[in-house]
Each structure stands twice: as C-alpha cells, then as structure tokens.
## 1
Amino acid sequence: MANNQIDLNFPKGGVFLIIIAVAAIILFSKSTVTIGPGEGGVIFESLGKGINTEKSYGEGFHIVLPWNKMIIRKVRQQSISDEMNVLSVNGLEVKVNGTIWYEPEFENLGKLIKTKGEDYERELLDPAINAAARSVVGRYTPEQLYSSKRDVIEQEILDEVQNILKGQYLSVKRVLVEDVKLPTTIRTAIETKLKQEQESLEYEFRLAKAKKEAERQKIDAEGKATANKILSASLTDKILQEKGIEATLKLSESPNSKVVVIGSGKSGMPIILGNQ
C-alpha cells in the first residue's frame, strides 16, 4: 500500500511575516486612545519629562507613542458632597452638609495633574472646601446658621473657596449648603424661639389691623355726623314744608282712593285720608 504524502510549500519567511503582523496589530492597539464625552487627556512621557503640560487632548480618537501613556480625566462640571464638623462663633460644634460644583481648567489639565496628582480632588479640593467652611461658619451663631443666613453663607463659602483655589487650575462654580445639623437641645430651643417670635408678630399684626379698623369706623362715623349736622342746618321750616307738599302731591297721584285735606295738618301741611 503506497503512502500518500502531502507536500506543504510554505513561503519562506512566512512565519516571520505573521509575527511582524501580529506585533504591529498589538502595537497599534496600544498606541490608540479614545477620549470620551466630557473628558480630557494629557500625555505622560515615560522617556521624557513626565507629564506634558503644553497640550491637553479633547474628545475623540488619538494616537500615542507606545512608550507614552494618556491620562484621562473628566473635564466637564462635576459635583462633590461632604459633611463637615465645624465650630460656630460661640464655639458650638455643628455639622454642615454641602455640595460643591467644580471643573478642571481644560487647557491647564496637565499643570493640574503635574502639581497636584491625578487625585487632585482629594489633594486640592477637599482641603479648600473644609478651610472655607470653617472660616465662614465660624462667623455666625447657631441660630443664624439654622435659619436666615443660609444663602449668605453659601456665597461666602464660594468666595472663600475661589480665593483659596486661585491659580490652582481648578474652577469652582457653585456651593450649596443642604443642611445644618445642631445638637438636639440647641435646635429645639431655636425652634421654640422662632415659634414664639412668629406668634408675637401675628398678634401684633392682629392688633394693628383692629386699630386700623377702629380708626376707619371712627372716621366714617365722624363723617356721617358732620353730614347730618350740615343737612340739619340747611333744613328750614319753609324747605320742610315744600318737601312735604311735594311728597303729598306724589302720593295723591297714586291709584289708591284717598281724601286730601289742604291746610289741616300742623303748620298747614296737607292731611291725606284714604282706605289704604
């Protein structure tokens, strides 16, 4: 029985070309980076001086030398929330819950990462927020923190944070103080005081309203009295007699049966006699 032999004629150097092709594909895949929406990137030059601070890369597809690394961070507006223990002006410890909106400066992303590291929120933003909150809250009493000063405190904290971060390549847009937690006894005392003040204001309002109503009635009564006085002074006997005659004549014109006696009444006024 004859042995069938299959002669595989593989091109010389074929294995080497395959290896080169696979290596090229791997190298290409490692040299391409896609930066997503709202993100930015900076190059870390492994064989150079580290972070390249001269250029920031935006969204899209980028080719990077294989020995370099693209560091990608969010550059859109972001928020961070925290609870801080701070002291009021009289030394009382209060807890402040707040949220801050910030965003890195895209064109200075390399400088930000080079000076503060990739975790720049923890290294830069958190300390700035805490310092600003302590500085601002320390100017107010617990009652002011709990009630009427909330919007003023937010603006002052924002101003403080922006001042601290000036020139640090990180922009803070807004601060929101969501809650101020006081010890239960202090909070109860403040709420009781505010309730009493509200009741007092309501009582004063009712008194003022009653006083105005009394003044209005007094003025109205005085006006009516003056009008009656003027009217009485103008009504002479002759005028009254004429008015009586006019009224009698109008009455006599009605269809009801009656008898009119002229000059029989007091002061010569007519007397009307009828069956109605």
Note: DSSP finds seven helices and ten strands in the chain.
## 2
Amino acid sequence: MRYGLARIRPFLIITALATLAGCATSPQERKAEAQQHRAAVLNAQLGIDYMQTGNLKLADEKLKRALSQDPNSSVVRNAYALLMQRLGRNDEAEENFSKAVALKPNDGDVHNNFGVFLCEQEHYTRAYAQFKDAWSNPLYNTPEYAYANAGVCAVRQGDKKLAEQRFEQALKVQPGFAPALYQLAKLASEQGDNQKADAYLGRITGEARYTPDILALCLKVKREVGDMNGAADCARDLYRMFPNSPQARALLQNQ
C-alpha cells in the first residue's frame, strides 16, 4: 500500500458480505435472490483482486457482471466505485460511492473509501464528514484507517497541526499502526526534527517496516542523525526488496 501525500489510496479495502435484503416472497424466490447476491459478491471480490494485480480489463468485466447480478449490493457498488476511481472516471465513482453509502450507511469501510475519493477531488469538508462517519461507528473494526486517511487529507489541505492530531488518534486506537507512524515521522523530518522522526520510525516493527516510502525516509533520517550503519541497512533493504521502485531509482541517481 502507498502512504504518500501526493496521492491518497484507501489503506484498507474490505468487501464483507452485505446483509441480504429484498422483496421476494416465496422460498424459491428468496433462494434465487440469495444465490444472485452471493454470485455478485464473489464477482465483486474477483474484480477487486484483478484490480489489485493491475488487470483492469478483467476487473471491469467481473464488476459489471456483479452489478448486473445485484445492483442493490453495497459491496458491489463500493467495489465498482473503487475501479472507477482507479480509472479516473470520477463522476461514476462518486455516484457508486454515494449509492454504496445509501445502501449500507453503517459500513465504515465504504465511508472510509468514499472519504479518500472525496479528498483526492479536494472536497475536504465532505471527505472529513465521511471519515468521521467511519471512525464514529462503534461497529467499525479499524477506525485507525479513517483517522490516518483524515490526517493525510489534512496534510494535503495544508493543516499539519490537524494532521498530527488525526495521526495521534490513529495511534491511540492502534499504537503500532505503521501508516500513522510513517506520516508523523515524515512531518517531523520536514520540520527538521529528525530525532523525533527517527523515534517514530523506530516504533514501526516487523513486515510493516518494509515499504519503499518507509525505507527511503528511514535512509534520509538515519543520515541526518548521523547513524550511518542504520542508513546503510535501510538502503540495503530498499535495493534488495524494491529494486525497481521510484525510491530506489532516485537513490541510485543521487549517488
């Protein structure tokens, strides 16, 4: 996942099964409706999987099939909105996010994803409302994602103080949450406080440490604080794990 400021992406995409609902009256009709819904959700998940691997053509085919099977599924509408967002078809993305929210207003993941989209369009007030709807929902299992996305959105808007507050709120929910720690480290580094940035980065553990953005920032911060061994470790991991990343290429060009 990317946590950069230039372009926000949803930190989490969850396509849980939507609650079955409909107007079928007979057992046969209810069974057929349930089967259609399950098929639609399966195709929506396949569409998400294809989208994540970059196969947008197959993603589009699966998601259009899902829409034809159950146009009243929040899961399907959310998935199709994400594809439209990826393709830059923003009117269709907003339409489908809006329908997904209307179909399942208590789905925190839909609110979170819609907020990310609105922030990309610089509709900041509307974006914050969606993030708040997500983290305020006691049934939303991962409010740290909504807080962190709201923080990234605040950075884009130029409000670094608010951004720090949102990232800290994410950490109150999940103390080791890597996206929030990375963003706080980046803000601290930009403000010249590399000791503080190094401390934030030091709290990122395990596999979460290994992203191009985190390793590139780690390299920069370690150099600034004079930890050349630590800088060498970060550079080595960046080259070894992400040799074709823009961060690794930039490092090579600057050497």
Note: The CA atoms of residues 64 and 80 lie 8 Å apart.
## 3
Amino acid sequence: MKFIVFSAFCLAVAAAMPYEIIEDEDGQQYYAVPISREKRQTKWNVNQSGVGISHTANIFDNNKHRLDGTASAAKNFNSHGLKPDQIGGRLDYNHKPSGAGAFVGADRTRGFGTDLNVGAKYNIHQSKNVGVDVTGQYGRHFGGPGGTGKPNYGVFLNAVARF
C-alpha cells in the first residue's frame, strides 16, 4: 500500500512538471525538460551514542510552488546488526505567492513505533509591517510498547508587527 501511495505521488509530481515539446529539422519531436542545479545538503552526526545522517534537497521549484524533501537515518552504537535504528522523512511544500505551506513527516524507531506529523500554514494578511497567519498541526504515535497514542493537534493564530 505504501508503495502505491509513493508511486502515485511521484507520478503526480512528474505530471505537474512543465514539459515543452520541440521539433528538429527532420520533424522529430522531443520533450524538453527544464534542468536546474539546486542546493542539496547532507549532514553527518557522530557522537558517543551513535551515528546519524540526513539529506535535504529541493524536489520541485518554479515561480509559484516549491517542494523540498528530507530523509534521515540513525544507528546506535550499542545495538546489534546493520539496519538503522531510526529512519524518517519529511516533505515541505511552499506556495510562493501567498507564503502558505504544508508539511508531512514520519519517523520510525525500531522497537518503539512511528511518529507521524502533518501541518499547514495560511497567510491571512501580509504587509510591510504586519503579518497574520493561521497554522494547524496534527501528530500521533503509532505502535511500540505503549501502543498507539492519542492524537496531538492544534490550530494557532500568529501575528507579527514591526514598529
């Protein structure tokens, strides 16, 4: 089921990409796919308890929309085997003209379950000196020794004024 959802997401992103059809002198048609170099960032962390790595990259970016993704994994030194003890991922979407955005993320710790978090932000008003937005978040823990936890959620109104 996860593979089907992931495949559908990848297909939707590919379908949303702006393709241009060009034709050469012989009448052969080609898809012109825009290519741009985006900043990607890989971070390593090693300490007395273990090692961790995370990689963040831009997946899609145009004048109106931006999608970034992060994947992470960690291995504790005191555990056995080669599998990572923690794995996770996050997608961040930003609608550039409005400043609105959303995210979805999940982190799985072997033997302790999975944490799922989603959230969204919508700008109500934005000017030179005042900004007002509403945000909503939802989080829940699934599985592990304590079982599935109760949902943790909230809606917040944020205001910023510069004098």
Note: Helices lie at 2-16.
